[in-house]
Specification:
Helix 1 packs antiparallel against helix 6, helix 4 packs antiparallel against helix 5 and helix 6 runs antiparallel to helix 7. 36% of the residues lie in helices and 21% in strands. It is built from eight helices and 13 strands. It has 383 residues and is of the alpha+beta class. Strands 1, 4, 5, 7, 8, 9, 10, 11, 12 and 13 form a ten-stranded antiparallel sheet that branches. It folds into two domains: 180 residues, Serine Threonine Protein Phosphatase 5, Tetratricopeptide repeat (Alpha Horseshoe), CATH 1.25.40.10; 169 residues, Umud Fragment, subunit A.
């Protein structure tokens, strides 16, 4: 079984913390909770036959409630069948039936009609079990689905703390997925953010990919030289740069994009020093510098010499450099998180300073424009 230790750690995190973020067993009626608790007690005591009987009772029970509207209990329990399948699946996994657990988890994910949080967590667990079963592509599919759901939830969570939690885990899960692809190993979960402290996004070290390295150029007598081989053998990469003789290390700001930042033409990159604390929860502090991919103000300014290169467009959740035009037609620059909500553009700060607030613009407004997408943050290297 593949990476079972890490899988067990993820399941514990999801079951004991993530699933109950909005309330423990909130979809279960009291009598159902009693049977679920009995199932887990029997499982913990290695009374697996009794635990399986509880699973059978729970599944029969949810089917009956689903068929008889008079016993359904109203909308408060419309997700009960999903939570029961989920609890039974985890118990089945604990008892060693991986195949049955996967089947029940898939059923649970389909039954979560309105609880998108629990649906997403169920899919992350599903991905872990598929990974353990060496079904790599299935695992990646369910993990990506969970991460994308968290990306959506971070824009509409019930409060700022919840939205920050989703933003933190969207980036962390993206890093885990990329690491799994690159190393073929599932990493253990990073620490859960402290609910009493301001949440900052985890940073991933980055390498800036520069010029290609070609296979060979002959340094032999001309009459013995072979045709030049211009196939690419690799790329020149760096994780550290110098600005005015001071060393800075690169960290990725693009969620889920791996740790290699492919450089466009150097003329399309900007490096700007950050002044202010409006993005300190995104680990961008006063005095850091950000690497931006420049977006030309006019299509005619875009360099089409790179065949196949498209005009860069910010994605939902990107950190961007934006220009804001005030009533006097003065231009002001700002670094903020970019969100699209319907036909509205939101420029959102992520700061421990309560003085900052979101700014909202119509999608086609001339009062703002995006002129750069943040790729990486440069942090001073200690002397």
């Amino acid at each position: 079984m593949k990476d079972k230790g890490a899988v067990d750690l993820w399941i514990t995190l999801c079951h004991e913390q993530w699933l109950h973020k909005y309330g423990e067993h909130k979809h279960l009626r009291e009598t159902t909770k009693i049977i679920v608790d009995k199932m887990w007690n029997e499982c913990a005591g290695n009374e697996y036959e009794r635990s399986w009987k509880c699973i059978e009772r729970l599944q029969n029970r949810t089917e009956r409630f689903g068929q008889d509207r008079g016993l359904g209990g109203g909308s408060s329990y419309e997700q009960e069948a999903a939570e029961v399948r989920l609890e039974c699946a985890l118990a089945a996994y604990k008892m060693g039936d991986l195949l049955r657990a996967v089947q029940m988890l898939k059923d649970a994910a389909q039954k979560y009609h309105t609880d998108h949080h629990c649906e997403a967590v169920t899919k992350w667990i599903l991905g872990c079990l598929e990974w353990e079963n060496d079904h790599i592509d299935e695992a990646l599919y369910f993990w990506e689905s969970c991460k994308n759901s968290f990306a959506l939830e971070k824009t509409k969570g019930p409060n700022d703390q919840f939205r920050q939690w989703y933003a933190y885990w969207e980036i962390a899960l993206g890093n885990v997925i990329n690491s799994a692809i690159e190393t073929e190993t599932l990493a253990a979960p990073p620490p859960e953010p402290d609910s009493t402290a301001p949440i900052t996004h985890p940073l991933q070290e980055a390498f800036l990919q520069l010029s290609p390295v070609y296979n060979e150029i002959p340094a032999t007598p001309i009459n013995r030289a072979k045709p030049t081989n211009l196939s690419v053998a690799g790329y020149l990469q760096t994780d550290q740069v110098f600005i005015n003789d001071k060393a800075f290390k690169l960290y990725n700001l693009k969620s889920g994009k791996g740790n290699i930042l492919k450089s466009p033409n150097p003329r399309k990159l900007l490096v700007m020093k950050v002044v202010g604390d409006s993005m300190n929860k995104a680990n961008i502090y006063d005095g850091d510098s950000v690497v931006l991919r420049a977006i030309p103000a006019h299509l005619s300014d875009f360099d089409h010499s790179d065949i196949g290169v498209q005009m860069p467009i910010p994605s939902n959740g990107d950190i961007v450099a934006a220009g804001i035009v005030d009533e006097n037609e003065e231009n002001f620059a700002t670094l903020k998180r970019f969100y699209l909500r319907g036909k509205k553009v939101i420029l959102s700060p992520e700061s421990t300073n309560p003085d900052y607030s979101e700014q909202e613009f119509d999608e086609n407004s001339k009062d703002f424009y995006v002129w750069g997408i943040a790729l990486a943050v440069l942090k001073p290297v200690p002397n």
